[in-house]
Amino acid sequence: CSALRRGGGGVRGRHVRRWCLKCVRPPLTLPPCVPGDGCGHTVLTPHSGTLTSKNYPGTYPNHTACEWRIQAAEGSSLLLAFGDMDIESSKRCASSFLLLSSPSDGPYCGNSNPTPLVMNSSSVTIQFNSTTHRSGRGFLLSYATSQHPDLISCLDKGTHYHQEQISVFCPAGCKGVMGDIWGNAKQGYRDTSVLCKAAIHAGVILDELGGQLTLSREKGITLYESAFANGLHSKSFTPPFPACDHALEIAGFNASSSWHEVNAMGQYTPWTAEQAAFSAYGSSWAADPSSGTEWLEIDLGGRKNITGIITKGSSDRYNFYVKSYQVFSSRDGKNWKAYRSSSGQEETVFEGNADSLQEVSNTFIPPILARYLLIVPRSWNQRIALKVALQGCQVARLKAPRPYGERLRCGQLGAEGAAHTQCPKGGSHPDQHPHRSHPDPWSRHKSRESRYVQLRAEG
Known about the structure:
Elements: E1 2-6, E2 17-21, E3 33-34, E4 39-44, E5 48-53, E6 64-71, E7 78-86, E8 97-101, E9 105-108, E10 117-119, E11 123-130, E12 138-145, E13 165-170, E14 183-184, E15 188-190, H1 195-202, E16 211-219, E17 228-229, E18 232-233, E19 246-247, E20 252-255, E21 259-262, E22 268-271, E23 285-286, E24 296-312, E25 321-330, E26 337-338, E27 350-351, E28 360-381, E29 385-394, E30 406-409, E31 413-415, E32 420-422, E33 450-452, E34 455-457
Antiparallel strand pairs: 1-2, 3-6, 4-5, 5-12, 6-11, 7-10, 7-12, 8-9, 8-11, 13-16, 14-15, 15-30, 16-30, 17-18, 19-29, 20-24, 21-22, 23-29, 24-28, 24-29, 25-26, 25-27, 25-28, 31-34, 32-33
């Protein structure tokens, strides 16, 4: 027999189980899918499988037909679970329909999923037929033998369950079905992930076989990192922090330079750094002269969780505004780090204003944890001019051990201990302090913050 190994991974020793799998050929007397132009994703085995209409989850074609024959071992019965059904309705489902026969059940149409069906037979024929229609995703159906009454659909997510621990059976064929996963086997998976694809990604089950898995729900983490494993890409995700979009109080501004306007009447108008506050009456901050080395520093008076920024141009008297800018952050006002998006590949250049009057918002995903923010304009109209407001919340909301959201771990995964937080190893270092002279925000070292939890496979 061939052996399927399931183990803990990592460098530490793990108890490894082995299952011997007999090579069993499906006892089918007919091809699993009768030729037809309405067949979609199809994976059929004697124990479980998944099938869809053509183009699912896109609109199924007009005038198509397909027939599937499912045959399990003699003496067993079949359980059918509809993950999705969206077949354009018609009177008595005469136009487009899904029909079960041998034994007979249906026809089905409309957009309500039928309840799971227990077929008192070891075989069933499934027919799909469509005529002219305007819309409809078609259907997704999974099946298993009666030995697996806890069968779920390929579309089931962790958010569909509220138990702290559950055991479910995933059918074969879920890898090719649409659905996103966030996280990885080491950290765990966000509970909005589709469960069966997460289990395949984690290496807990094989797509061609399906299998039983146990899920445990735990406190979430602040960053789910992406990974490529077992032919699947997972996504990275930083959950938004609840009630963390308040206007942050700014303790002070500082700037590389300020324009001091004197009009024809000899009247003096200051465009100093303090004018960058939304609450400041009259003009905004404006640089003098405008060059690629200008910057505006914001001091929040203490570390804050910064989730967004709002910018505005000069005023109705002038058409000064910043078209694009970068953001740098610092906890001490000395070491600066360029903001990067959740992918972390490149420094983010934010899109700014298109005129001097409208307010433009940008969201920080992931949020910034810092006391100081440095705004470095990259492009502007006529003259660099800014009013700035920041959104976020107190840093106390970020303190461990209260991460936000929940995550699910697949395949009998249990916590190995408390969460271990990896601290950043320094940051970027401008050559000079912005309070004293012009900083060089492009002279810096790269660093990333991450949080992870060690996981193990239970023996």
